């Protein structure tokens, strides 16, 4: 049986992101974990690269590069990723001495970091951690306060990035570990094992304007696509004036 799952309009914004960011900020109480070792930082970079959505070939290449960087087998790297998903930072940085403690940065600057990342990743926009750091640097100079290191900015963002990814689960597919998976609107996780196993539908307004033969503005047309989740092949593509989403509401 072929599972065909509808995805929301690509132009929509997850309204719960801001709440999730705020809640996470309150829970952390503005305290940032102390510095990670160079080895732990390298493991973190490797894990983040493997967890980014990609096709199967790209994942395989990233896995080989990760094994070379850490001097481990590919299987060991996969176990490390799995442990990270279950334990978080504890997987790469075992419990540290209590006397190391935590340190704080200016609350206003920390809120700026989170807000910059949040606003920079709405809709089709994307902002990287490095871009957030550069903007934070300019903000710190403007406020006349000490600039945190780039690793501090990255650690501030990390828990929010993880919570955002888990909350959205990004219905566009991604390789997590050795498995390609996708989450439906109803919250069901589907394992995608072969072509034509799962299709995804997207229905949104196109970023173009139509006019009739007299030059009168007709408005923006609706673009509907059906994509095979496994191969990413476009199975169907239509462009029309009619919003067909009412059919789903009627049914």
TrEMBL record:
Recorded GO molecular functions are:
nucleic acid binding
SUPFAM superfamilies tied to this protein: Homeodomain-like
Matches recorded under Pfam families: HTH_32
Q: What is this protein called?
A: Integrase catalytic subunit
> Which species is the source of this protein?
Rippkaea orientalis (strain PCC 8801 / RF-1) (Cyanothece sp. (strain PCC 8801))
